[in-house]
Every structure is written in C-alpha cells, then in structure tokens.
C-alpha cells in the first residue's frame, strides 16, 4: 500500500480521502533533517505553509511521486528540484481565496477603526473613546496590487463598500479590470493615490522587496498598507523605519520574510501596526476546501491518474484531458519507437501534430512524445513532469509543428528523430476503437499495431528476400506473430515490420544484415 506523510496540520476531511488509498502517517513539526531521514519511505507528502520542502529533502525523496500543498503558495517547496526528480507538485488554487480576501478586508477595517487596540484597552479596564476615532473606508481609494483570485474578491467587496478601486497587475487585461470596476494604473500612481493598499501577488524574484523605502515614501501620510500575500514582498526594515517615523498611517501584516516571526523590530511598534500569525487561510471552510482539494489530487496521482492543479506540469481541463488521454499513449509509443530506431545520443526530435490534433490544447502530446523518446534511457525516472527538462539537459533540439490539413487519419502524430543510427521517422494514429496503429516508417506506409517485440528491416523489394528472413528467424526458433511490407514503388526500397513473440536472440540481427538486399535492420521493444 502507498504511504503518505502529512507533515502540517490539515483538516480531517483530507485525511479521510487519503486513507482510501494509502497508509497515512501524520508527523508535524519535523526539522529538515528529520524530514530528510524519513522521506524515502513515502510516496506522497501533504503540507501547508509550515513544512519547508528543500532541495535536500527532495534529493532524499526517492519514492515520492507527489507533493500536495494544501493552500496556494508553493514558495515553501523547491519546485525546480521536484520537477527534475519527476515529482508532481500540486496546490489548491481556489480553496482559500475567500478566506484570504476576507482577512485582508478585516485588516483594512481593523486599521481604520483601531479594533485591536480598542479591544485591548477595554480588556485592561479602560473606557477610552477619544483615542480611537476612526475613519470610514467609504469613498476612499483602495489600491489592489495583484488582481488575481484574491485581489479580485477584495476589489469587488471594496467596491461594494463604496471605495474607488485602483489596481496594478501587468498581467491582467483592461477588459477584466473594467468588469471588476477597477482602474488599472502603474505602481507609482497606485502608491501615491491610494488611502489603503493591499497586496495580492506571489513572492517571486521580481516581487521580492517590490515594496521598499522608495515606494513607501510615495504613500499619503495617512495611508495604510496591508500584506496578506507573502512575506518578503515588503522590505520589513524599510517599513519599520517608515512607521517609526510616522510617515504613513499604518500597516497590517499577516505574512513575514521569515516565519514563524522571531525577534523583530516590528513587534516594538505601537498601535500603527497590526500583526497576525499567517492566518489568511485559517477559516474552517478554507481548511476543509484545501484539504479535500489536495487529498483528492494525491489520491488520483497514487492511482495513476492526472492531477488537476499541478504547478509543474500544464494544467488540463477534464474535457481536454478526456480527449487527449488516448493520444498521450500514442505519442509515448511513437516516441519510444522512433527513439529506438534513431539509436543513442538523439540530437533532435521533430513532433508534428496532424489533423484535429493540430491545435494548442494538444501541447501535452509533445511532452508525451519526449517521455517516450527518453524512456529507453531513463526508464521510470522520466515522466510528464520532467520529460521536457530532461530532454533540454540532454541537448535534444525539439521542433514542434502542426498541420491541420493532413487528414490521412483524422488525428495523427508524426515524429522524426536524429541519433547515432541516422534520421528516422514514424507516424501513428488511433483507430475508431482506440487501438494504436503505426501508419508509416521512414515514409513507407504500413498499418501495424505496436507489439512488445518488433523487428524492422529496410531492404530492396526483390523476390525471395522475405522468405530468406522468415526461414532465418525459424532457424533461430523465433516465432513470427505478424508481418507486413511497406513500399512506395514496386521493386524499389521497402520496409518490413515483424511482430515477434519473444525478444530477438543475440546474433540474429547480424545474420539478417548479411541477407542480400537488406540495407538495415532494427529490433525494438515497446
Ligand atoms: N495569507 C495567507 O494565508 C494566504 C492565503 C492564500 C493565498 N495567499 C497568497 O496570496 C497571493 C495571491 O494569491 P491568489 O490566489 O490571488 O493568486 P493569483 O495567482 O490568482 O493572483 C496573483 C496575481 O498577481 C499578479 N502578479 C504576478 N506578478 C506580479 C507583479 N510582479 N506585479 C503585479 N502583479 C503581479 C498575477 O498577474 C495575478 O493576477 C499569493 O502570494 C498567495 O500565496 C496568502
Ligand atoms: O497553510 C496556510 O495556512 C497558509 C496558506 C496560504 O499562505 C496560501 O498560500 O495558501
């Protein structure tokens, strides 16, 4: 039975799903060394933001197939190492959207009405109403940095509260901003014109310290900034100085450059800062949503099915997946075949998607072809996650072409590879019943199903040659299951495709090559 390690606290609803298919161990609070020591035992790892899945952990994870992040941000997972190792990384892109958006809005209202401090003062026995005069958000300007799922919800609610919404997101269309009633502006304008600024962008190389002393200096003196996205997007030292000098109205932070927040000058600030311990996703509803979402994906991957929200392989809608699944098998089989024909050190692969496959949704077929091509060298180490990266690292030049006009079969795939045995090309298609057919070899038309053991010869189309090869195989006790010859012109060059019941015994291939008229011979196992 597969084994799943759950190393952060996740909702029971997720655990229940995992136990349908696996032994589930819950071990939280592990150090990097402790996690590294036990990870080789596990097929899947389920985490929240607490566990750091470092390169070292991934290096040791010899059986791991999937890392499931019960939440959005995967910045606590070393995704490039996971990809290289063929480990799928999945998240729950929407399960906590509302929770995080509502936390940002709660922070905004808490700042505007001094709720944390007023609460504290009442609990201390005071009845001080003068110190906590607030300000309304109605008719104020809210600047939303990142108009994705969370930012959009914040914008909608802000709009409903009567706020004017400015947004900065270089990857969002004007049309989407219009739909949300937001004005798209550049970051400088957003900072200088907003009364409240809220961040909803991922932490990346580009966004690290995006908000720094210069941006903070552009804010209005009473303006407030909220970060419920990721620590490290705001330069904490610059924020501390800005708040200490009273240059802006306040800040509310749910996330920090280093978590858990250790000793920090931010804790020393007064009532112009609100700090929460990364609670954005901490609602009962969100925790159930993300746990179910990620557990279902782990279950599916352990059962050999695709994951719907993989961050390191292209996400496919169920409809597209349904259409492509049989063709993935075809592409992989053809990749494997052309790889074996082309020999070692394949230097290029040309993938041509033909007929109805010639649209962009068929991109995963290119990955499947590469996976098939590399399977001889890498065996089970290559998968849909790392095939492209492995091919690139091996210097395989990939050419993708699409031709909707080729309709010999309504959908077909043509692969051409160049390796130590020269240039070879194969085409394949699916029959109506979903059966794979190899429909050409090196341009010679054939119509054969793939077989575990196959023999291909290139020869002159002259009388007697097929008989000679047949009796030679008989002498070596090789049983022929089927045989087909493909030729373009009578008595020209031809290809013979034989399906055989067992692997070709050693020494047969050189004998076949000695038969007069045979120019080349290949044995392949699919
Ligand atoms: N505090 C929490 O507990 C909590 C909970 C959930 C999500 N989050 C964090 O919130 C953030 C947003 O999540 P989401 O689900 O809305 O993600 P999303 O992918 O839907 O949206 C992110 C948006 O940021 C934009 N963006 C990317 N780079 C940008 C840049 N350099 N400048 C401006 N915009 C940029 C993208 O175009 C996208 O529209 C993530 O960092 C996520 O990890 C935090
Ligand atoms: O796991 C959590 O509680 C935080 C999740 C949140 O930061 C996210 O990116 O989804």
TrEMBL record:
GO molecular function, one term: phosphoglycerate dehydrogenase activity
InterPro entries reported in the protein's UniProt record: ACT-like_dom_sf, ACT_dom, ASB_dom_sf, D-2-hydroxyacid_DH, D-isomer_2_OHA_DH_cat_dom, D-isomer_DH_CS1, D-isomer_DH_NAD-bd, NAD(P)-bd_dom_sf
Family matches, as PROSITE patterns: ACT, D_2_HYDROXYACID_DH_1
EC number: 1.1.1.95
Short name of one Pfam family: 2-Hacid_dh_C
EC category: oxidoreductase
Catalyzed reactions per annotation: (2R)-3-phosphoglycerate + NAD(+) = 3-phosphooxypyruvate + NADH + H(+); (R)-2-hydroxyglutarate + NAD(+) = 2-oxoglutarate + NADH + H(+)
Record-annotated ACT domain positions: 454-526
Gene3D superfamilies assigned to the protein according to its UniProt record, in alphabetical order: 3.30.70.260, D-3-phosphoglycerate dehydrogenase, domain 3, NAD(P)-binding Rossmann-like Domain
Keywords: Amino-acid biosynthesis, NAD, Oxidoreductase, Serine biosynthesis
Pathway participation: Amino-acid biosynthesis; L-serine biosynthesis; L-serine from 3-phospho-D-glycerate: step 1/3
Function: Catalyzes the reversible oxidation of 3-phospho-D-glycerate to 3-phosphonooxypyruvate, the first step of the phosphorylated L-serine biosynthesis pathway. Also catalyzes the reversible oxidation of 2-hydroxyglutarate to 2-oxoglutarate.
Family: Belongs to the D-isomer specific 2-hydroxyacid dehydrogenase family.
PANTHER family registered for this protein in UniProt: D-ISOMER SPECIFIC 2-HYDROXYACID DEHYDROGENASE FAMILY PROTEIN (AFU_ORTHOLOGUE AFUA_6G10090) (PTHR42789)
Protein name (database record): D-3-phosphoglycerate dehydrogenase
Organism in which the protein naturally occurs: Cyanobacterium stanieri LEGE 03274
């Amino acid at each position: 039975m597969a084994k799943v390690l759950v190393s952060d606290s996740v909702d029971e609803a997720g655990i229940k799903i995992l136990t349908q298919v696996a032994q589930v161990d819950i071990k939280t609070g592990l150090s990097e060394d402790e996690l590294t020591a036990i990870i080789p035992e596990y097929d899947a790892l389920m985490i929240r933001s607490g566990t750091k899945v470092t390169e070292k952990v991934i290096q040791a994870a010899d059986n791991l197939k999937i890392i499931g992040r019960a939440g959005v941000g995967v910045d606590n997972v070393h995704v490039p190492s996971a990809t290289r190792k063929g480990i799928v990384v999945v998240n729950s892109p929407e399960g906590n959207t509302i929770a995080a958006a509502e936390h940002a809005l709660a922070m905004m209202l808490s700042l505007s009405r001094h709720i944390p401090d007023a609460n504290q003062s009442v609990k201390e026995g005071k009845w001080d109403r003068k110190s906590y005069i607030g300000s309304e958000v109605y008719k104020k300007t809210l600047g939303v940095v990142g108009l994705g799922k969370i930012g959009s919800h914040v914008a909608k609610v802000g709009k409903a509260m009567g706020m004017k919404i400015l947004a900065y997101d270089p990857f969002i269309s004007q049309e989407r901003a219009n739909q949300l009633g937001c004005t798209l502006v550049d970051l400088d304008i957003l900072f200088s014109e907003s009364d409240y600024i809220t961040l909803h962008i991922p932490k990346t190389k580009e966004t690290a310290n995006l908000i720094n002393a210069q941006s903070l200096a552009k804010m209005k003196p009473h303006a407030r900034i909220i970060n419920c996205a990721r620590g490290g997007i705001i330069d904490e030292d610059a924020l501390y100085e800005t708040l200490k000098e009273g240059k802006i109205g306040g800040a509310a932070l749910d996330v920090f450059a280093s978590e858990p927040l250790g000793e920090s000058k931010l804790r020393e600030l007064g009532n112009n800062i609100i700090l929460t311990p990364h609670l954005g996703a901490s609602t009962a509803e969100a925790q159930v949503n993300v746990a179910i979402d990620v557990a279902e994906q782990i279950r599916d991957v352990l059962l050999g099915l695709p994951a719907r929200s993989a961050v390191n392989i292209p996400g496919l809608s169920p409809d597209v997946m349904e259409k492509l699944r049989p063709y993935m098998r075809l592409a992989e089989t053809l990749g494997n075949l052309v790889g074996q024909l082309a020999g070692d050190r394949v230097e290029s692969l040309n993938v041509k998607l033909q007929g109805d496959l010639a649209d962009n949704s068929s991109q995963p077929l290119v990955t499947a072809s590469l996976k098939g091509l590399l399977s001889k060298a890498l065996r089970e180490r290559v998968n849909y996650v790392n095939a492209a990266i492995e091919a690139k690292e091996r210097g395989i030049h990939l050419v993708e072409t699409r031709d909707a006009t080729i309709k010999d079969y309504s959908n077909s795939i043509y692969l051409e590879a160049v390796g130590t045995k020269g240039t070879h090309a194969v085409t394949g298609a699916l029959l109506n019943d979903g059966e794979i057919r190899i429909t050409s070899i090196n341009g010679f038309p054939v119509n054969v199903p793939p077989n575990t053991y196959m023999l291909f010869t290139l020869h002159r189309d002259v009388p007697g040659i097929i008989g000679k090869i047949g009796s030679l195989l008989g002498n070596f006790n090789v049983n022929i299951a089927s045989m087909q010859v493909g030729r373009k012109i009578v008595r020209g060059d031809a290809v013979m495709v034989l399906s055989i019941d067992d692997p070709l015994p050693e020494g047969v291939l050189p004998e076949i090559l000695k038969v007069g008229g045979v120019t080349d011979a290949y044995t392949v196992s699919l």
